């Protein structure tokens, strides 16, 4: 048996940062594009982790699906969390507008269209959180309170790789292993660049090499969505059960 490679550290080449972790309110339409989702993909049980203020869980369940979101921010009292979302939408929009050259606005039309979509998504999320708080589980990677094989599909958006300036290689590896534990069939992660638009190819290569030893097959899949320039690819993971 070959010796398992040891992870190295990744350091972002950009000192620019959005600041505190953003509670993003992405819509299900954005999720469909980011993760190249089809109706077959979401036919089973779906986990959104971290879910933030996204309305994807609400929309999937409204369409007859079975979805759950997990995020440590869900430990916040409901009224307080809903109250924070307007400010978070404004903060995210201000960041994107201030760095407009890093983005392609076609999907939204313009910055105002981007802000409107996020505002509407935040509203839908808040309404669903009030109605069905059981769909929103307070939990943080890399330790999720779900049994093995609990989900058919996991979607993980804008945490891993996005915050590579503060989440090290060990965290990324532990988080991906945990997502694979709860959904050995399919895990999809997007985007594969950091928040400043810098590539994370070195980190990605290290993680894929590590996961290969765990019996996990990794695929880089092009998607028909690009908001951050260069973010045209998602990572898809599947457990093969063959450990090296």
TrEMBL record:
GO terms for biological process: methylation. Residues 130-182 form the Methyltransferase type domain. InterPro entries: Methyltransf_11, SAM-dependent_MTases_sf. The keyword Methyltransferase applies. One of its GO terms (molecular function) is methyltransferase activity. Keywords: Methyltransferase, Transferase. The keyword Mitochondrion does not apply. Pfam families: Methyltransf_11. This is Methyltransferase domain-containing protein.
């Amino acid at each position: 048996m070959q010796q398992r490679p040891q992870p190295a550290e990744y350091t972002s080449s950009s000192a620019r940062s959005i600041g505190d972790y953003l509670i993003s309110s992405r819509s299900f339409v954005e999720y469909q594009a980011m993760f190249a989702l089809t109706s077959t993909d979401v036919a089973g049980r779906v986990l959104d982790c971290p879910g933030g203020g996204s309305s994807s869980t609400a929309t999937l369940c409204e369409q007859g699906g079975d979805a759950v979101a997990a995020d440590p921010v869900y430990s916040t009292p409901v009224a307080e969390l809903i109250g924070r979302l307007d400010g978070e939408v404004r903060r995210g929009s201000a960041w994107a507008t201030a760095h407009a050259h890093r983005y392609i606005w076609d999907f939204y039309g313009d910055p105002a269209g981007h802000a409107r979509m996020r505002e509407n998504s935040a509203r839908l999320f808040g309404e669903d959180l009030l109605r069905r708080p059981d769909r929103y589980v307070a939990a943080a990677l890399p330790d999720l309170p779900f049994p093995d094989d609990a989900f058919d599909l996991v979607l993980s958006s804008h945490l891993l790789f996005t915050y590579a300036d503060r989440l090290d290689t060990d965290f990324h590896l532990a988080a991906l292993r945990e997502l694979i534990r709860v959904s050995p069939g399919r895990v999809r992660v997007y985007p594969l660049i950091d928040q400043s638009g810098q590539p994370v190819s070195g980190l990605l290569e290290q993680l894929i090499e590590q996961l290969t030893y765990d019996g996990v097959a990794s695929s880089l899949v092009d998607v028909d969505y690009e908001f951050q320039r260069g973010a045209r690819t998602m990572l898809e993971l599947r457990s093969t059960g063959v450990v090296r």
